[in-house]
């Protein structure tokens, strides 16, 4: 166990107070002052003092131990100070100053052993803020930070690649969806056109059905009138014979045929003047369906064209 210089200096000054009485303190201080005075003035030294102070320090030409360690070692070596501080039984530790055991004031260091003064040079002061240690620690920290930075960069690159791949997939899917949407829009437009055409055809069929129903009703009303007025049937038969004759005679009889049709129509109107339905259907204006086809009721002459002649 290595000793710190500052703690040892404080303990050395207060060791006499903690572990000795006033007489021992006074005798120790007197002895130290005497030795220092003899060294300065060149006076005679006692045998014990000469052995301690006059003997040259080992390794004085090199980097020897600090004076504090030397003085402490000599103090522990001095048998006169055993009441204050002394070696242990095995002389590898001393008792006093600072304890290494909770129950005993004993201190030890590998370079501080009894009779082995040359080991003092191995005791070095601890330097908590050694620049080399600090640099080493900083370099280690910097190495760790660089390693972490490299790992983070690699992780960022991987995430970026994954993000790019995801974006490419999303763009491809969006492109497919847009294409499908365009096709669906075109299909909807075609379906609307077909629906409009179907609606137009349906409207035309409805108009034709209504027209056929109206014609049927007109025919039915006309037949009812023929049954009520037999003379009208005779006139119609006579008209048919005239038409056949005109067809045989040619162009000359066409004007006469038209005149006859007009007369027959007037007579029919006179006979059926009370039936407003037939009169209205005979005189209703021309109708036009959605296709522009003109539909109008046929004249009575054309309606009766296909009637059988008199038996």
TrEMBL record:
Residues 135-215 form a coiled coil. Residues 1-12 have a biased composition (Basic and acidic residues). GO terms for molecular function: DNA-binding transcription factor activity; RNA polymerase II cis-regulatory region sequence-specific DNA binding. InterPro entries: HSF_DNA-bd, WH_DNA-bd_sf. SUPFAM superfamilies: Winged helix' DNA-binding domain. GO terms for cellular component: nucleus. Residues 1-21, 282-311 are annotated as: Disordered. Residues 64-126 form the HSF-type DNA-binding domain. GO terms for biological process: cellular response to heat; regulation of transcription by RNA polymerase II. The keyword Transmembrane helix does not apply. Signal peptide: none annotated. Keywords: Coiled coil, DNA-binding, Stress response. PANTHER family: HEAT SHOCK TRANSCRIPTION FACTOR, HEAT STRESS TRANSCRIPTION FACTOR A-9. This is HSF-type DNA-binding domain-containing protein. It comes from Gossypium laxum. The lineage of its organism: Eukaryota, Viridiplantae, Streptophyta, Embryophyta, Tracheophyta.
């Amino acid at each position: 166990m290595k000793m710190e210089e500052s703690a040892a200096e404080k303990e050395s000054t207060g060791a006499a107070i903690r572990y000795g009485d006033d007489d021992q303190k006074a005798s120790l201080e007197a002895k130290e002052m005497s030795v220092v005075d003899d060294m300065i003035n060149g006076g005679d030294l006692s045998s014990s003092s000469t052995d301690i102070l006059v003997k040259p320090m080992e390794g004085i030409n090199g980097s020897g131990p600090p004076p504090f360690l030397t003085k402490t070692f000599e103090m522990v070596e001095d048998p006169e100070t055993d009441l204050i501080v002394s070696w242990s039984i095995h002389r590898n530790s001393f008792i006093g100053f600072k304890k290494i055991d909770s129950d005993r004031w004993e201190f030890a260091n590998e370079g501080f052993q009894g009779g082995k003064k040359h080991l003092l040079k191995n005791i070095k002061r601890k330097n908590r803020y050694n620049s080399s240690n600090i640099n080493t620690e900083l370099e280690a920290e910097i190495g760790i930070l660089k390693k972490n930075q490299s790992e983070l960069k690699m992780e960022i690159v991987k995430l970026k690649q994954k993000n790019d791949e995801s974006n490419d997939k999303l763009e491809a899917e969006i492109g497919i969806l847009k294409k499908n949407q365009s096709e669906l829009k075109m299909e909807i437009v075609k379906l609307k056109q077909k629906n409009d055409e179907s609606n137009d055809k349906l409207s035309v069929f409805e108009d034709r059905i209504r027209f056929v129903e109206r014609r049927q009703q007109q025919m039915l009303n006309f037949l009812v009138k023929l049954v009520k007025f037999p003379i009208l049937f005779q006139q119609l038969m006579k008209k048919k014979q005239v038409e056949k004759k005109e067809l045989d005679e040619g162009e000359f009889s066409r004007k006469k045929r038209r005149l006859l049709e007009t007369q027959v129509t007037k007579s029919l109107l006179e006979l059926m003047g009370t039936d407003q339905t037939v009169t209205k259907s005979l005189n209703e204006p021309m109708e036009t369906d959605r296709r522009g086809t003109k539909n109008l009721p046929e004249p009575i002459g054309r309606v009766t064209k296909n009637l059988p002649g008199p038996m």
